[in-house]
Amino acid sequence: MLKPLTAAISSVLLLSTFAGTSYAQDADPAATPSSDKAAVDLDNVVVTGTRSPKAVDKIPGAITLVSKAELARSLVLTEDATAVLARTVPGYAESSQAMSNTGENLRGRVALRLFDGVPQGSPLREGTRNGTFTDMGIVGRIEVINGPSASEGIGAAGGIINYLSAAPTKEGNEFTITSRYTTQFKDDSAGWKLGATFARKAGNFDMIAAASFLDRGITYDGNGRRIGMNTSGSLADTEARNVFIKAGYNFGEDGVQRIEGSISHFNIEGKANYVQVLGCRPDEAALCGATRTNTSERGSIFGSKAAINDFKQYQLSYIHSDFFGGTLTINGYKADQEMRYLPENTIDKQDPLIAPMDTIYDQSEIVTNKKGLRTSWARPSLFSVSGLELRVGLDLVKDTAQQRLALTNRLWVPPMEYTSKAPWAQLSWDIGPVTLSGGLRREDGELHVDSYTTTWYRDRRHVDGGTLEYQETLKNLGAVWRINEAWSVFGSYGEGFTLANVGIPLRNIQCSNDPGDTQPDGCPNDPRIGVGDLLDLNAIVVKNTEFGFNWRGERGALSASHYDSKSDYGQSLAIDPATNDFVLLRAPVRIKGYELSGDWRFNEDWRFSAVYSHTRGKTSFWAADAAGRYPAGGTNKPMGVLDINPDKFAWTLTWNFLPHADMSLGATTLFSRNLSGSDVRAFDGQRFSFKESTHGYTLFDLGMNFETERYGKFSLGIENLFDKQYILSWSQPPGGFQNYWAGRGRTVSLTHTFKF
Description:
Layout: H1 2-14, H2 33-39, E1 46-47, E2 54-55, E3 63-66, H3 68-77, H4 83-88, E4 112-115, E5 118-119, E6 139-146, E7 159-165, E8 172-183, E9 191-202, E10 205-215, E11 238-251, E12 257-270, E13 274-277, H5 285-288, E14 295-298, E15 308-323, E16 326-340, E17 364-379, E18 388-405, E19 410-431, E20 434-449, E21 452-453, E22 462-463, E23 466-482, E24 487-499, H6 503-507, E25 539-552, E26 556-575, E27 582-601, E28 606-619, E29 637-638, E30 648-658, E31 661-670, E32 673-680, E33 687-694, E34 697-708, E35 712-719, E36 747-755
Parallel strand pairs: 4-7
Antiparallel strand pairs: 1-2, 3-6, 4-5, 6-7, 8-9, 8-36, 9-10, 10-11, 11-12, 12-15, 13-14, 15-16, 16-17, 17-18, 18-19, 19-20, 20-23, 21-22, 23-24, 24-25, 25-26, 26-27, 27-28, 28-29, 28-30, 30-31, 31-34, 32-33, 34-35, 35-36
């Protein structure tokens, strides 16, 4: 277990040091030494994901700020929305390389993704599509706040990933035209992008408007074999359109008030040129022949609809920076999202009253709608005490979701509506070099589920609807001690609240007398059941403790943190061998880990950065019995790759070889891992066991930029530089043929950016 860590630390020592998790650099890689020094002045860097701006050096936790320069380096390589997080955020899992972000989590838990503060997706029916919601070219930076947050509402049990849109930076008008060509030099692998951005800043008014179109071809692995279409959503063979408009106006005496509105519409749609051909896992070779990964063949399924990811977002904000001595922020938003998946003819999609068995292809479709109001008021120097700050607010939200089988118009997950009102308060006090903080959030919500009948595969069982109430008081405490200009240490305790992916247990209800058999008679011998009888609808409350340190000097920085995250009634994922779909396991969960992150600038031309993460999680082999006959088991079952990422080590070496040119070589290593565990249930003597092995891999990437005064900037990116063949980690464990995918082979991208 120590070998990966030893290797990582040895590599770091060879290059002298690491950088802090909270290190952020918005400057260009070719920045001068003076601008580099300003970049590590963390007192001047604020995090808005905490609801109101807060200096990074005063937040008792691990923060990662992905700057515009780091985003640009990632976009040279790929347009994948989550790839930059996998490379720069220690606790973020391996990128799925798909429209679906299955297996992508933060420190083993689902994070709350925000776009300009607006939640993406819905915890009522997590469709693993909330990582692809906008064109990354419009994103100015990303703030990642690790651990649960009591200043956020439902969904923030694992942390916050806040994507912040770009803003005009200079007076006057500025146009940016971006064109891109991508290829793997194989049939139909070419893709292209064209985007335009207009920015205007004139006195108290500013605006930014952007539109883009991105066409992606099919993808190939390192062996030159087409990669299979991901049934949860592929990026390959798609077209994406994005429109974004944001405008703001400062008014009042000295411009202390501001009103700002934005509209975002993102749509990615499959071109339906290919169908998936299932592969054969090594453990299934006796059934299906030679080992082979999923692939794609030209063709389409008659009557099917395009797979889509459609996100519409509208918001309006008002800020008053001198409201009773503090800053008042009011933000109202509306977000509508539709996710449609590829057609499948799995057993759970069949119904003999519609068509003969194994002949029905159907497509899952999730529709969510969200309305909310987020408010905050931050008052520094409370009671005229220097350094004492109070932040209070009230959040209101109405979240609805349902899931249907689109081709046959069948209800799969009934309409659900979650409403919540949540007051919160945070108090912090700077006492010289020490910052103490603490806060409360009162989550008061209701979940209403309509009555419904399950599908044929789930025995057409009637389920009575109802309303469930959730009340929880969430606490957080923390302290930061800035020992001197270079060193600081922190410790914190925080709680977070979310609902489990409740759509999964709702759609999986069936007869209790013989769950393994199909009895489409409505279960007449079973007692009536309602949503109030389901323990799986209980909330998840996460309790997280963390401590760590940060060091920052003139040339670099180093940070490390250790965390311990517990939930008495958590969630983990498994795959149903009959349907090849996910099932939700509700049992105690404990996740522990540590992270290192760092940066070193040898001189103004050479810079090295790296991150390392180690995470392990355990849950129970069985949940508490609904009839009360036995409690949940002990936390003896290791959590596999669907929930916990293998150890990761990623580094980047950047060389500014000319005043307006740079080159970056990077590598990401996911280490091999072997997990095993067993337990015996005393109640009935049943034995349980778990074993999982994943094989690691290392991928190299190369990026180059050359900027001219007259012709714009030219960029070359090579992803998977050495064309390595590998299987994605989360796709390696047994669990049916449907998710046996290889990763992308070598991909070359040429980008031209022209500003005027």
